Amino acid sequence: MTEQPDDTTRLLFARPWEFLKGCVRVSDLPADDTVEVAFAGRSNVGKSSLINALVGQRALARTSNTPGRTQELNLFAPQAGGIRIVDMPGYGFAKAPKPAVEKWNKLIHQFLRGRPNLRRVYVLVDARHGPKANDATVMNELDKAAVSYQVVLTKTDKLAEKDATAVIEATQKAIAKRPAAHPQIIVTSSEKGIGIDTLRHEIARIREGY
Asked: What pLDDT does 6 receive?
C-alpha cells in the first residue's frame, strides 16, 4: 500500500539530512536520547542507494561497487532533528579478512542488543533472491532482542510482476511467526522511486511516537 505524504512526513524530508559520524565501537555512539531507526542488509542489497533515495540526496550515504565497504555504524539526521538513521555494516559477501568480518558482526550484535532508543530496524532483502540464511540470522537476533523490525524488499523493478508477487508471498510466509517482525512488507525500488513515500511515512510516524 502506498502512503501519500502528510505534512509531518513532508517536513521531515523537505530539509537536508547530514552525516553525523561513523562509529567503529558501540561506545562511539552519541547519547541514546534521540529516536533511531536502523537499516540492515546484505552487502549488495542496495542499502546506501535506498537511504539516498529516502532523503532525496544523491551522495549522503556512500555507495560502492565493492560489497562490504561500509565497515562502521554511520549515523545521519535531518536538520529538523528528532530522529537518526543508522546505516549498519552490510553482512554476507564482504570482501574483507575474516577477523574484520567478525568484528563487524560483533558490532552489529552489540548495537542491536544495547540501544534502548532503537525503535525499528529495516531489514533490506533483495527482491531478486528473497530472504537468505544471513537475513534469517539477523532476524533471529532481532527476535531474541525484542527489537521491532520490518522487511523492505529492494530492487523490485528488476522483476516481472508475477515474480515480484511470488517473492512477496514467500517473504510474508517467512516472517509470519516471527515475534518482532512488523506484518507489513515495504516493496521498494531506489531507481524507480517505488515505495519511498511509504518508507518515509513509516519513519515519520516512528519519530512522532506512533
From this structure: 78
Measured CA angle at 155 (ends 138, 199), to 5 deg: 70
Q: Which of 130, 190, 142, 127 is nearest to 38 (CA)?
A: 142
Mean residue pLDDT across the chain = 88
Any bridge partners for residue 75, and if so which?
21, 86
The label of the residue with cell 525503535 reads: 119
- Residue 2's pLDDT band (cuts 50, 70, 90): very low
**What are the angstrom distances between the C-alpha of 141 and each of 61, 66, 112, 176, 206?**
25, 26, 8, 16, 21
Q: Is the separation of the CB atoms in 178 and 53 below 8 Å?
A: no
Q: How many H helices and E strands in the chain?
A: 6, 7
Does this model's pTM top 0.85? My answer is yes
Where do the domains of the chain lie, and which CATH numbers do they carry? 7-207 (3.40.50.300)
Contacts of 124 (CB under 8 A, 6+ apart): 39, 40, 41, 42, 45, 46, 47, 50, 151, 152, 153, 154
Cα(17)–Cα(177) distance, rounded to whole angstroms?
36
Q: What is the pLDDT of residues 122-138, one digit of tens each?
A: 999 999 999 999 899 88
